[in-house]
């Protein structure tokens, strides 16, 4: 561990070759840093290159001085905290108490807490690291900042990483001073209010794509179910009933028949909650009733479900391109040709099959193209450049077009197979017939909503009309529920 600590995160070559880090003007504001670890080193480099004078407080300055830019002064903790007004505390929470001997020198100064707890520590301590630091140093002003910025981002500069720096403190003046420093360093301060927000800020780096958890589990669940179903039909049935070994199909063929099923069903699940919400509003005759929680959550996860659908569809396209590269495919082609020759058939051409395949491929490409458009417009930078009408046209109307194209793609794939007895292996219907269920319900419901008497009623309800004639607001009993909103 100590060997790891000796290794500089910023290479000395880089530090020394950067002339802007070599000398800082005498009149530059002085900033202190307690600790000489990874974060302290990156912070010192960024501060020096942003025009600050830096003094680092270490328990062993001799050992660590060589790892910092030459413009930064590395000294003992007591000396480092004596002159600067702002001091960054770049040590872990468990070592805060070891700094208590510096209480007198630190009195009246601004301490910037940059620490992040582990997930276990976050659950274990009710009070945030910053509040704990404030309780240890009551004569100081504690500001929580920079904890969401990694040492790497500090080192590489804000161009290559997250630019936002949430900041909170009970003292507006101290918060302003640290915010100005953040701006000078090229970051964007975000005021998070009082020090009570520190716990929320400390939870930020612990999150791992929270909005993606349920959609990813849903996609995985669908994948496992369809994969198992396809395995039984395409591999197990020939093995059991015909003694044919088709296990080679597991890595490519079965995966490629599973992916479009998942993509297609996921796409329909993007539009199903909207249909359910509209049905509920029509039934209740008002929009002033909360949707059930599960529907609310579902509505809020539509973007992620749509992107996962696009991901599976793109993988399906890639797998399909690779199908002819398989050795098994080449053998199949050669065997077919030999059979043709033996049967003395010179020209194999089934007009219906040719047309089916042409239409099937074209519809698939069109569906994937439309889905790509949806995926691109859901990127915040693109979405921000569209007005509300443009965004809803792409996401709602074009999205529905993608669903219809995918349905036609599936139907041309199936063609007459749903009516052929030989396709029902182990009495199980072909997979595509199962995948058609939910999308067809959605398309049918959407078509019904287009009927003039239904669409007019729905439009009136969404403009505030109520069946009972009076607008009644039902307040949620639970406060937390009041914060949630539904978007249809
Ligand atoms: P680190 O490399 O382990 O450095 C910690 C430093 O604490 C040591 O170099 C040590 O410096 C100092 N220290 C002071 N008193 C100590 C004591 N009693 N025992 C042991 N060390 C003591 O850790 P780090 O990655 O720089 O992280 C420092 C703080 O920044 C942590 O609170 C972390 O959560 C936060 N942070 C880090 C990152 C990151 O990317 N690394 C990002 C955001 C926030 P001396 O030996 O010179 O005194």
Describe the model.
The chain is α/β, with parallel strands linked by helices and 488 residues long. It has 23 helices and eight strands. It has helices spanning 2-6, 12-17, 38-49, 61-64, 77-80, 103-106, 119-124, 129-136, 151-156, 172-184, 198-203, 213-242, 253-284, 293-300, 302-322, 327-342, 351-377, 380-383, 388-414, 431-435, 437-449, 452-462, 479-482; strands at residues 30-34, 53-58, 73-76, 86-89, 110-113, 141-144, 164-169, 188-191. An eight-stranded mixed beta sheet has the order 3-2-1-4-5-6-7-8, sandwiched between helices. The two termini are 53 Å apart. Bound molecules: NADP nicotinamide-adenine-dinucleotide phosphate (NAP). The site of NADP nicotinamide-adenine-dinucleotide phosphate has 22 residues, from helix 3. One of its GO terms (biological process) is iron ion transport.
Q: Keyphrases for this structure?
A:
elongated; disordered N terminus; binds NADP nicotinamide-adenine-dinucleotide phosphate; oxidoreductase; 23 helices; 8 strands; eight-stranded mixed beta sheet; alpha/beta; FAD; STEAP_metalloreductase; transport; disordered C terminus; metal-binding; 488 residues
